[in-house]
Amino acid sequence: MAESSYFSTMYSNATYDAVGRDLLNFYFQYQTAIWGVTLLIPVVAIFFLPLVMMGLVYISALYLKAYRYYYKINGYTFTPECWKPARYMLACLWDFQARFWYGYEIQGLENIPSEGPALVVFYHGAMPVDWYYLLSKSVLYKKRLICAVGDRFLFHLPAFDALIDCFQVYPGTIETCADILKKGNLLAIAPGGVREALFGDETYPLIWGTRKGFAKVAMEAKVPIIPVFTENIRAAFFTPSFGKKWLRALYEKTRIPLVPIYGGFPTKLKTYVGEPIPYDPSITPEEMVERVAGKMKEMITTHQKLPGSLTRSIIERFQYLFKVKHS
């Protein structure tokens, strides 16, 4: 009996030791997996959020295609006026998204004229969400559409034709832009374009190069220029700093924006609409460019803490929420 009890005890201890080791290994594997997922979430999020934003843009485009198709299959004549209800609805949705995610504000909306032409010149962030929001504000509160100049690649994106038609996005020729303004419309141009979007940084440089087309357009149409800048726009979305020189060389050669965009964080965004710079027939387009660039730089140094900071902009966003909650 003693011998049998001895072997039974040894067997039980060995079994318990094996089970304990298995449980310990499982625990360590579980903890490793949890930490791996935890560390992976931010990495996935910074690339996933821009896709969400692009998804919202594409959903808007598909909605507009379906909206226009509904008119056509029912035998209605589709005119530019037919876009107004759809445009208003999308403006409401984008305005809600702006307030919800970014605590979006705008200062100086009164500088957008209620009637008559003007050229809106804005700083181009990595992803121009602030432009969508300014456009929505203008549609909702000024009852005016701001036409825009888009880069060539936009006109080749699938499903974008209805979006381009609804919000009147045009290629950027001087003749086309001047004609739009002469008809009494508002028109927006980002002189930095895709270069400024993809190759700017937290110091908010103006990457306008020798571009003076926007000044020629304004002087040809004899309209004022309204500068626009959005605080923290370069903290909302980023482009990689590593390999930027090589990526820019690739862009200059292909004109295809192959630079990845990441971010989408809930930063505080506030758009400042500056006072109109009046048409002055006594100056040259080059002098007008200098005047507008000087005003834009002044707005950046006045309204943006330099260099920009992701952490600070997120803190500003939550400070805004706290003030709203306790006001």
From TrEMBL:
Q: What Pfam families does this protein's entry cite?
A: Acyltransferase (PF01553)
Q: Which SMART domains match?
A: PlsC
A cellular component term from Gene Ontology for this protein is: membrane
The UniProt record lists the Phospholipid/glycerol acyltransferase domain at 118-233
Give the CDD domains listed for this entry: LPLAT_MGAT-like (cd07987)
User: Which GO terms label this protein's molecular function in UniProt?
Assistant: acyltransferase activity
Instruction: State which residue ranges cross the membrane.
Output: 33-64
Q: Which UniProt keywords apply?
A: Membrane, Transmembrane, Transmembrane helix
| Alphabetical list of InterPro entries matching this protein | Plipid/glycerol_acylTrfase
Q: Which PANTHER family match?
A: MONOACYLGLYCEROL_DIACYLGLYCEROL O-ACYLTRANSFERASE, TRANSMEMBRANE PROTEIN 68
UniProt name for this protein: Transmembrane protein 68
